[in-house]
Amino acid sequence: MVGAKRTRFDVHKRQLCEVSPFFEAAFTGNFREQAGSMELLEGNDTVFENFIQWLYRRKLDVSWPDDKQSSKTMYLDLLNLYILADKYNIGSLMDQIMAALFNAVRHRTQTRTRCLRLPPLDVVAHVYLHSARGSKLRRFVTACFSWFQDLKYHEGYSEVLAELPEFAADLAVALISRLGGAADPFLCDGSCFLVSTNTDAQSKPNTQSSSNDTGRDENTVIEILG
C-alpha cells in the first residue's frame, strides 16, 4: 500500500458482494478488481469502520442520547453512514438507518415529549451537500421541518435557505402538500422514506451507539479476503 494516510481494512469479498451491487460488479464483472484489493479514494476510515461492523452483523445498533449536542453527533454518524451506503448502493443498510431516524422522531412525537431528535439546520446542510436530488434522506429531513419545526426559531435560517436553494424548494413543496391535506408521514409506517421493500429494515435497532465521525477525509484501502 502507498501513502501515509491509507488505511487497510480486511474484508471478505462474499460479504461485500451480498449487500452491494457495486462491489459485486467490481469483483465479479468483466472489469473485476485484480490482486484482491480496492482503493476507495474518497473514503473516510471511521465511517468505513462503522460499515464493516454492520456488514458482519447485518444489524444497526443505535442508542439515542438526550442532550442536543450528542444527538447532533448521532445524526452525523448515521447520516455519514447513510451517504456511504447510498454511494455503494447498499439498500438494506440505508433502510436500517432510516428506520432508526424515523423511529426516533415518531417516538418523540407520539409521546409528546420535547423533540431533541429532529435534525438541526447544519445537519440538513450536510445532507444536501452530500446527497442527490430525489434522495430519500432529503425527503426525510424536509418532512421533519415541514411537519415539526418552525424555521423562525432557528438562528441563521434565512442564510441557510439562501445557500441551499434545493432545500428551500423541497421545503416549499412539502409545506404546500401539507396545507393541501397530505397525511402526516410520521403517523404512517414510514415506508415512503425507504429505498426497498425490506420489512426487516423497519424494525427497531438495538440500543448501542455507533462510533463518532472524526470528519477526516483519508484514502481507504480494503484488502479483500477469499
Describe this structure in words.
- This protein is mainly alpha-helical.
- The chain contains 9 helices and 3 strands, in the order βααβαααααααβ.
- Strands 1-3-2 form a 3-stranded mixed β-sheet.
- α1 packs across α2 (21-28).
- The longest helix is centred in the middle third of the chain and has 20 residues, at 68-87.
- The two termini are 19 Å apart.
- The model is unreliable at 201-220 and 222-226 (pLDDT under 50).
In short:
The chain has 226 residues and is mainly alpha-helical. 49% of the residues lie in helices and 7% in strands.
Largest sheet: 3 strands, mixed
Strand order of the largest sheet: 1-3-2
Shape: elongated
Write the element-wise H/E pattern from the N-terminal end onward: EHHEHHHHHHHE
Which secondary structure elements does this structure contain, and how are they paired or packed?
Blueprint: E1 7-12, H1 13-19, H2 21-28, E2 37-40, H3 45-55, H4 68-87, H5 91-110, H6 121-129, H7 136-148, H8 157-163, H9 165-179, E3 220-225
Helix pairs in contact: 1-2, 3-4, 4-5, 7-9
